[in-house]
From TrEMBL:
Protein name listed in UniProt: Predicted protein
Domain Fido positions: 257-367
Name of a matching Pfam family: Fic
Domain of life: Eukaryota
């Protein structure tokens, strides 16, 4: 059953839009103010009276349909990325606040206040900021010091990015020659695209999400993920924006990984996971995930628990995430530039260190 959250959120989709406000403060003259788009009206077609072709009907969802509410929320978030309109700022801020992302909601309220200059809103923001940040500080102190949280002594966080030594596995000259031969067999983009397709499939198998039979796996590795109705060039595996970003990064010489690149990739990978309707032990609910920003920005701590082994793992406290991530990027760039380093040993070190930082609220398949 849905809790009261969707009923609150339904205001995001069904409240009367302040079109006048949008017109006056929108991105450009009359932004979104002409709801019928009359300059582009095709007068030759029949005039349709169906409610489904109206703006209000298009933006309205059933508050009892959690999946539809989540999809609608993702749409509003995407709109806000490119259109910093007061209406969108207010509604998305309300949605984030309701779903528990109070720090990032506060940022949107403050941006809205710079546009509106409303004294009542300014007073509310000042009061809310004080209480929200105080609660974040209290949670941080408990995360670091409260023994009652049940964190396993052996699993308390330490800075692996700073303290863990590089792997000692080195390649012999014959192994380096083999790697170069593989690299020269096909253009790097083709090889890397297929490698990432396989990585995606194998990661989902490990996580227990989905597993394909061998013939389907082989085809997905070769051609990628595509619409079956479209013709596919077997020599050009299809990738999205995130994969294109990875290819571009790999082409730089020397390779230079930065915190900004990691955040940009996270935002691309997690676009469809920003708002989800999920099942939990206490029932179904809407959940919100900040994407493209570190836990230090959203002021969020995370843990992982293995009930079978009775282990609770602590990750990097949020106030140290970005410093540790900077150190990770520096050492990553140093490691991958060593021509004689075993690539499998490098991958193990990189995965282990990145995981212990856990820079984002939720993981993606590179973890």
């Amino acid at each position: 059953m849905l809790d009261k959250t969707p009923k609150i959120l339904v205001g995001l989709w069904t409240d009367t839009v302040n079109y006048r406000g949008i017109k006056e403060v929108g991105n450009g003259p009359g932004a979104m103010s002409n709801l019928q788009l009359t300059p582009y009206l095709n007068v030759d077609r029949p005039q349709l009276q169906h409610s489904s072709v109206t703006l209000r009907a298009s933006l309205t969802v059933d508050s009892s349909n959690g999946v539809a509410c989540a999809a609608s929320a993702r749409l509003w978030e995407c709109l806000l990325e490119n259109h910093r309109l007061p209406y969108l700022l207010l509604r998305v801020a309300d949605m984030r606040m309701t779903l528990g992302s109070k720090v990032t909601a506060l940022t949107l309220y403050e941006e809205l206040q710079t546009m509106l200059g409303a004294p009542q809103l300014a007073r509310w923001i000042a009061h809310s900021r004080s209480s929200i940040l105080a609660e974040a500080e209290r949670q941080m102190f408990n995360y670091k010091n409260d023994l009652s949280l049940g964190l396993s002594p052996s699993q308390r966080w330490r800075s692996t990015a700073e303290k863990d030594t590089f792997p000692y596995c080195k390649l012999q000259s014959a192994h380096i020659d083999v790697i170069r031969q593989w690299q020269n067999m096909h253009p790097p983009k083709d090889i890397m695209a297929k490698c990432l397709n396989l990585h995606c499939l194998e990661t989902n198998v490990i996580e227990g999400t989905v597993q394909f039979d061998p013939s389907d796996t082989a085809r997905l590795v070769e051609v990628g993920f595509y619409n079956q109705a479209e013709l596919v060039d077997l020599g050009n595996p299809i990738g999205g924006a995130a994969l294109s970003e990875i290819f571009t990064s790999l082409e730089s010489d020397p390779l230079n990984l930065t915190v900004e690149t990691i955040c940009r990739l996270h935002a691309e990978f997690m676009q469809t996971s920003r708002v989800l309707y999920i099942d939990t032990v206490s029932g179904s609910r809407l959940s919100y995930l900040n994407i493209g920003i570190t836990r230090q920005v959203s002021r969020c701590n995370v843990t992982a628990t293995s009930r079978e082994q009775g282990v609770k793992i602590q990750f990097c406290p949020y106030d140290e995430v970005e410093a540790d991530l900077i150190t990770f990027c520096k050492r990553f760039n140093e490691l991958v530039r060593q021509a004689d380093m075993d690539p499998f040993a490098s991958a193990a070190w990189i995965s282990h260190v990145f995981l212990t930082i856990h820079p984002f609220e939720a993981s993606f398949s590179l973890y």
